[in-house]
Amino acid sequence: MRREMQRIILLPVLCLLVATVAFAQDMEELEVDHALTLDFETPHTDWAQPYAGESTRVLVFCNGRGTVPRHIVEMMQRFDVEAEAAFWIRVIDRTDEEWLGGETGEARMLQLLDQDWDAYIFLQMDMDAMTAEQQYRVLEPVTEGAGIVFVGANDERVLKQDNLVTDFGATAPPVGDAHSVGEGRGVRMDLWPEIDYHQGWEDEYDYWAESFGRTVLWAAGHEPAMGLRVDCGAGEFAWDADKSFTLSASGTPIGANPQLRTRVRKAGDPPVALPDRALPNRAFTVQVGDIPAGDYHFDAWVISDAGVETWTTAPFTVTSNLSVAMVQLDENWGEIGESVSGRVSVEGAPAAGDMVRVGLFDSRNRLLKQQIVPATGDTSFSFEIEPWMPMLLRVDAGLFRNPAGQPAQTIDSAYEYFRVTQRNWDQFNFLMWDTPKGTLAPWAEQSLVDNSVTLQLGQGQPQLMLSAHDVAWVPYTTRIMAPKDDDGIMRPFCWNDEAAVTAHVQEKAEEYRPSRQHGVYVWSLGDEVTTSGSCLSPHCAEAYREYLNEVYGSLEALNASWNTNFTAWDQVGLSKEGDNDEANSLAEGNYPRWFDRKAFQSYNFVQFCQAYDDAYQAVDPMARTGFEGAGRFDRGDDIDLIVRENDFWSPYPGVADEVIRSIAPPDFPRSNWMGYTKDADSLLGRYWRMITRDMNSVWWWRWDALGRFHGWLAPDLRPFPAVAEILRDTQTVRDGLGKLLMAPEIEHTGIAMLYSYPSQFSCQIENGTTYGSYESSHTAFQNLVRDLGYQFRYVTDRMLRLGEFDADEYRMLILPRSEALGAEEAAVIRDFVENGGVVIADVRPGLYDGHCKPLAAGALDDVFGIASGGLDAAVTTASTIGDLSIETTKVNPAITLTTAAAGGSADGTPVWIVNRFGEGAAILLNMDAGSFPRLGATDTPDAAAELAYDLISRSNLHQPPVFVQNAAGDRLRNIEVVRWEDGDNEIMAFFRLSGNRETATVELPEARRVYDLRNRKDLGRVSRLSVEIIPNRATFLALLPDEVPQARLTLAENAVQRGDTAVASLSVPGAEESYAFRIRVTAGGQQLDWHDDVVLADQTPVEITVPVAFNDPAGEYQIQAIELFSNDGPSATLRVN
Amino acid sequence: MKMRHPALCTTVFASFLLAACCLVTAAELPSAIVSVDAPRDRELTGERAGQIGREIHANFGFGPITYAVAHKFRFDPNVPGKIDWSEGYLGMTRPTSANWYGGGFLFVTVNGHDIGLDPISSMVGVERGDRAILDMVWHDPSANVRVRFFGLPGENWLGCEVELEPTAEITSFGIRLACYPSFFTGWHKRDGARRIKTPSALVEQGAVEEGAVADHYYGIYYDEIFDVALGEGEGPCAMLMLPVEGATIKFAPGSYAVGTHVTLPPETRTVRFAFWDLKGMTNADAIANVEGQAASVRQTLEEIDLTPRTIQEFDVAAVRESVQRALDSPQAHEALADRVADIQAWLATSGEQFDAGTGEKPGVEAQERLLRSIDDYNSFKWEVKLMELIYEL
Predict the structure, then answer these.
(1) If residue B45 lies in a helix (H) or strand (E), which one and from where to where?
(2) What is the SS3 assignment for A776?
């Protein structure tokens, strides 16, 4: 009941905080940060919950990050304790500690000190972090009767040796050193024990939590009115001996009908409850029969109608002279298809019929597989690792006896852990930066997994608890940087010092071999890394020459490009000693020599990454290596090369995302980092942008942030309110949308856009910056295409060179600021137009060659029907194109028309220049693309959109696949429509990152069966529909020719024995398209959370395995396959015997 | 009405009960707060490699709008005492970076010298509770200058007082304000339609209006394109200045940045403003909001005594009493001997000015000095009390 009240209380308090204008936003955030709720409940013993005595109000001072605050919540679960906390913390990006929230946080803490508290707790924190006034305000109420508890801390000024308390009457004493403090009480107790994850860790913690709560109640003066003692005798019993425990109760119960409740418990095993006994008897003897060897507790309570009157607990040990001496695994990890094998040694003299059961248990203690063999000295075992097996198996050997007519009696057992290597590649993933630490880390991990986390990234090796939760690992193996010594040579070694690099990467690979055994999603070379580099070492000089030789093919070609006269390759080097970046060449206008150095630096970085990749593949043949949180669109990174050579890339959000999603294979892991704001809307904007940029995972920094950033989990381990909102809004992603979108690529409507690596450099020279940046041109063209309802896909200059550009696939090629084009690329573009394609450029196309060498005439002048004229600076002036007037345009004044015609003029300079060329056409805007009005803006005249439509239609493209209108029937602005196709099925996203919420009308070219995935609603067969456009939140529709076909779910056998694996077959007869199904299994109305998966199915049946453990419940199991679009699907009934 | 859902009824009842309790509690909470973050440093690159860019943010909480101001500057760790800045040194970073510009919105020049060209002497939150006050002090070559921002509970504007304490003859005194109403138009390659509405004029983009502050004592800065009502922009901003005899104000709404220049008579010592960043508000609502409260805000600026309460209420007698208590307690005296000596020395030299009836308020520099020490002196009495409490255990 009191717990319920605590839940009820939080909501109105938060509402009030929001409503009270006097509170600052920061105070409101602090209340959310500091809230200690019971929302995330963990297994625990209700030691004194509900309590017959008074409830206890405590004020806790502790670090708010990590799992420390959770110890308070764990106490609140077990005892009638209401707690508030003030967090003393070093927040992100700070070097000192302070109250969370700074001065506002301190003000909050002072307000808390104004309240009455039964006890103050300093959890792993010293009181002298406080000012004298604050200390006084804590100590004064303590001297008047409150309590103070130092956990893992002490204050000898307060807890004086002279004031030790040793007489606690009949009640169980507090742990640690108890003192009187004036009229109050104080205790110093040790920190919680460091408990690593293992079977039963939570039971071991439960006893520390008991002692903690008992101590706090004593300090607060709220110890039980009754006494209860248990006598375990010597505390050690043989497993098959009678075990006798004597209990004595004293004092008067507060409530009526007091009962004595007892149990024995071995950590990791279910507790054995003993029969209740009624008071008023005050002395009892409890007998316990045969139980397996191990460490136990005997726990007892007196419980009345008022609640727990008193309780006690005492440890005892059970021994056996017959034991499992050892479980030895041949390997403690393995891939699917390999085996779990080893041997078991039994010590002692087994009786006839004694057996050993070697079992594979999951982290829920479900017995998945077993082999039973006679107990002998040594026994071997072997199990095949099956695809459905979890990532952590406990290989448990139990020695048991099976007396006739009686249940089997386990005598002793021992176990080892085994990791099943899994990489989670076949699912849409959510990655979390870092892992929880400390004794309560497994609970934090549980909450993370409950709240969608499937991958974690961190330094070092993955903890066992990650395997227990089926979380694959991203090892942060290094952070590539390029510091240099005074001689300009990279430290600690040059990226091209092969011996040093080899030694280093092999050492790294060996260091992270345990990660490989766990299961690595991708191998990270770090975040915010240096993505290009070279140095002045001889190794780099040699590598540079080799690179140039590869690029140019001959010294003559190099000399021609650089205007040099080298006669041998060993003469080739930097233009000026020590000028690593060829700034000298840039200054002198020798652009090829400058560009080549820059290109080499990007290439060099990629080659260095490859050295790691090779080493990691040596320990993990399936290794995928890359980097994250780094790399920019126009800062020198060769995006095409990075994607070609590396195996994954998760940059920060930016224009580069569009190139990556266009050119990377569908299974190339990619994402953006997010988590840098605190409100749900802006966070959701980031999340949905990743989905609409075709990413196959979402990466969040980091799980426990407080202060400027927002963790995934709050200090009490519940998801932050904004996170809960994210999870609600994106549930459809985890219900199958994420996985369904992993295979198809975003459609293009016949429009390709060129990413020209050298052009990002040429845009910086010879007045190039007067036209804006390379990136801004791409942004403007991307927006223009999207705002018209079309879609594009990037191609790269390297693809053009390598013949990878499939011209037949496209009708239009956009050349944003494509100033530097090699002869081969120019030829491909020329052919494209000659054969009927349309190219559009903004300014200065093809004025440089592929090494940024200015050309005498533009490489595509004939295609555009112009004479380029020179490299003049932009002239900023007004332009008129038909009905459209643009106030400010940056135009190239140098061009003259040859065969083209101008559709507009900018103070005499031709703009909107159209030229027929071969079967196609070329259009030169002759203004930077950013000059053209943004079609998404409300104030852009309709004439701009009409002109842009006209532009696109020149390529004979069909109408946009969909028309989206606002309430007035006009073109809806500021909306992205993103489409994926899978056969006849189409997925469509409507997304706007900012702006207002409004209802849009969507007109389809033809009637389709439409499913609204945001509202999980079947809209029927329509050609016109309404879609609510919600800023930052994407709405997905599925458009089908007809309703979702009936899926079929059949069981190979309708009944299985426990210990068997049921096999179901799921298909969508007649469907060539994939459908996503969430597979869930229920038994007795309860969902079995270990059977929760998303599978894709079409007409070809897919196999679904439902392993039933030996200790799962018998009965009827319902297997449901819930199809994503229809939110419905077939089910099958499985009889488990 | 039947209570159909017992759990819901319980929740509703608990909500009302808690609402009542919390309203009482809320009255006890500091209702106006200011906190100063620790400096955030970043290493600069390119031409400024080796330099540090530093930002110090102060966050206010007193009403429906959360304001934050930031002091921003660059320095070379190897060249002490020399700083410069990029776009400004005093920005308003919240609720939006647009409007009163987060990169620099307030510039004070004395004798033609911008105070931000010298390192700031102090940036301290000096009061919270009934009001939130932030003091920023510069020791300009010609004057000690304090820019004091303040917030009053429930108000939607951030107050500002610029106080001059001359150390040389003052020949000119000016204040410049910079804002980007509602939206960074030029940055996004968009055209706006800037407007400034004053009590006596509507100044349109491209025009310049100059006159007495008394005639233009407030200005509402908005953009007709970037109007929340149209689904664009952040909302308007506004300024109100307490008129100063002889002061003139010039409004120059450009297509991107919007400048406001105040020229003050050299003898001016105090200038007071109210600033609004009306994020999320439509132009029409913002105009109505500011015009509706202009008279009362002006009156507040005229009447308010901004001397920090800690100075107003500093109890030098209590400090003396604490010293005496420490001297009387052998244990406390032993534990706090150095502190006692320091404070005795201060009392001997400076304590008298705080005895009752001495009257005059400390100037800019004196207030700054006192505010630096006052917590220390106030804290002393708690140190003595704490020692006494501990020794009695």
Answers:
(1) none
(2) helix
Q: Contact at 8 Å (CB) between B326 and B333?
A: yes
What pTM value is reported for the model?
A: 0.87
Is there a contact between A640 and A667 (Cβ–Cβ < 8 Å)?
no
Q: Which CATH number describes the domain made up of B33-303?
A: 2.70.98
- Model confidence band, residue B8 (pLDDT cutoffs 50, 70, 90): very low
Which residues, other chains included, contact A624 with Cβ-Cβ below 8 Å and sequence gap of 6+?
Answer: A520, A521, A522, A523, A647, A648, A669
Question: What residue in A sits closest to B224 (Cα-Cα)?
Answer: A939
Does the distance separating the beta carbons of B386 and A135 come in below 8 Å?
Answer: yes
Which structure tokens are listed for A311? 């309780």
Least Cα distance to A748 among A661, A830, A648 occurs for A661
Beta strands A307-319 and A323-329 are unpaired
pLDDT at B18 (0 to 100): 32
- Are B189 and A930 a contacting pair at CB < 8 A? yes
Q: Decide which of 2.60.40.2950, 3.10.129.10, 3.20.20.120, 2.40.30.100 is the CATH code for A1048-1136.
A: 2.60.40.2950
- Return residues 10-39 of A near B (CB < 8 Å): 11-13, 15-16, 20-27
Question: Under the phi-then-psi rule, with left for phi > 0, alpha for psi from -120 to 50, and beta for the rest, what region is B97?
Answer: alpha
DSSP A664: S
Could A5 and B38 be called an inter-chain contact, meaning their C-beta atoms sit closer than 8 Å? no
A397: closest CA among A416, A376, A414, A411?
Answer: A414
Residue B241 pLDDT class (50, 70, 90 cuts)? very high
In this structure, chain A runs to a length of 1137
Which positions in chain B touch A5 (Cβ < 8 Å)?
14
Per-residue pLDDT band for A704 (boundaries 50, 70, 90) equals: very high
% of chain A surpassing 90 pLDDT: 91
User: Which amino acid is it at A114?
Assistant: D
Q: What is the DSSP string of A341-400?
A: EEEEEEES-PPTT-EEEEEEE-TT--EEEEEEEE--SEEEEEEE--TT--SEEEEEEEEE
* Contact between chains at A888 and B153 (C-beta distance less than 8 A): no
State phi, psi for A581 to the nearest 5 degrees. -95, 5
For A106-134, write each residue's pLDDT tens digit.
889 999 999 999 999 999 999 999 999 99
Strand order in the sheet with A697-700: A472-475, A455-458, A429-433, A697-700, A673-674
Q: Is pLDDT of A3 > 50? A: no
> Alpha-carbon torsion A923, A953, A779, A828, what sign?
negative
SS3 of A496, please?
A: coil
Summarize pLDDT for A1051-1103 with one digit per residue, the tens: 999 999 999 999 999 999 999 999 999 999 999 999 999 999 999 999 999 99
Residue B140 Cα distances to B104, B144, B170, B347, angstroms: 19, 6, 11, 30
Q: Which long-range contacts (CB under 8 A, 24 or more apart) does A618-621 make?
A: A618/A506, A618/A509, A619/A509, A619/A510, A619/A512, A619/A513, A619/A516, A620/A516, A620/A520, A620/A523
Query: Domain segments of chain A: what residues?
Result: 2-219, 227-319, 335-420, 429-532+604-740, 751-948, 963-1040, 1048-1136
* CB-CB under 8 Å, B64 with A939: no
Q: Do residues B199 and B215 touch, judged by C-beta distance below 8 A? A: yes
The answer to whether A186 and A147 are in contact (CB under 8 A) is: yes
CA distance, residue A967 to nearest chain B CA (Å): 14
CATH topology of domain A751-948: Rossmann fold (3.40.50)
The helix/strand/coil state of A970 is: coil
Q: Which of B26, B191, B379 sits opposite A22 (nearest CB)?
A: B26
Instruction: State the complex-level ipTM.
Output: 0.84
Q: Given a cut of 70, is residue B86 above it in pLDDT?
A: yes
Q: Do the chains contact at A23 and B232, CB–CB below 8 Å?
A: no
CATH number of A227-319: 2.60.40.2550
The whole-number pLDDT of residue B358 equals: 56
